[in-house]
Amino acid sequence: MNNNCPREITRENEKLLLSKRACLSQNSAGRERHEEPCPLRSDFQRDRDRIIHCSSFRRLKHKTQVFLMPKSEHYRTRLTHTLEVAQIARTIARALRLNEDLTEAIALGHDLGHTPFGHDGERALDSIYSDSFRHNEQSLRVVDLIEKEGRGLNLTFEVRDGILNHTSKGSPKTLEGQAVQFSDKIAYINHDIEDAIRAGVLTEQSLPVFPVKILGDTKTKRITALINSILANSDEQIRYDVETKKAHDELRTFLFDNVYMKRQVNAEKDKARFVLEVLFKNYVSYPEKMPENYRNLALEYGTECAAVDFISGMTDDYAIDVFTELCVPKAFYSPLI
What we know:
The protein is an all-alpha fold. The protein is built from 17 helices and no strands. It has a domain of 226 residues: Orthogonal Bundle (Hypothetical protein af1432). The longest helix has 24 residues. It is flat, with a radius of gyration of 22 Å. The N and C termini lie far apart (76 Å).
């Protein structure tokens, strides 16, 4: 390949500019199915572009982050959360001289498998599916098996690993994946506080004293403090100093107790769970009602699995529309009257 093509220039720049701990695109473990390289983009840039252009990414715009189908457009959705994670992760990657392209691809793809109605949708599917349901595992199914009518996106090993392992229990094999893992929590903790204050669920004054003292009394100060701790303490692993980690963990616990599990936030969530239960039972009983690519998945992985694949990909509004079609009677007007 021409050494002056953009892809080769990018690869040379990575060798010159990135840390020895960064994952260079030329060192990628590759894709499951071989593809000829793109002359314009590195493999990680190509993965990022495939994720941005896939239909699952677009649907994140209409999926719940925390507050179910808010009337105000100022509240976060799963898409705005994803973009915020990508921004924070890229800031960390650039400062640590990691591979920004790999970091961004993982961040943009990490929640592609999230359900309608947020984590309550995830818990609902996990409770009714005979196997387990985890949104990180579903995100990997989306990029491997569901997107592009079942062909998948054929992403690199490193992006797939970062997507699968972005949750607290995961162990990403690259520092770029670890940067996304930390950035996901930084984003949702601080941005969910902002949304909860806007919704009247919290006030700034109600936040616990120790995290505010250590991290700051505004969203910007807290995010900056968390990032600075990562930059000062990371080497072979992404990490915080002890005091910052304690403040981070206390703030996260506070949110679970006072926002995510609060009655005011959860008032409609039993209804959301019921919607998904009805849809699941319907598609398991009548798999022919699913689109063809999901019927094909049913033949290979079982009807329950395919139903979960289909439902988890729905937006909040689409899930409610299908439920309404199934369960709400329509007026009947006789032409003889």
